[in-house]
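Can anyone check this?
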Amino acid sequence: MKEGKLFGLGASDMKGGDVGNLLAAASFIGQDLSQDIWVVGTANEELDGKGSEDFARYFSQNCSYDSALCVIAEPTDLEKIYIGHVEIIL
């Protein structure tokens, strides 16, 4: 960070997504939520995408929620995780 700007490899993809996810989660601070919020930074998004895939597998095998919502800032070329809705605003 320098003068309010983020620099570095991945600054416009995964780091940007991570910041967006953190800010979204922070907006729920102090609210009475019925479920937990997890913010997970995954690795290898530019190589094989195993980070997102491994976390999705871990979550499904180790967590017991009646329902869950997942937002992945960079979803492994859209090949392994299905999309419910995509909106692009330019």
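Reply from J.R.: I decoded it. The chain is about 30% helix and 0% strand.
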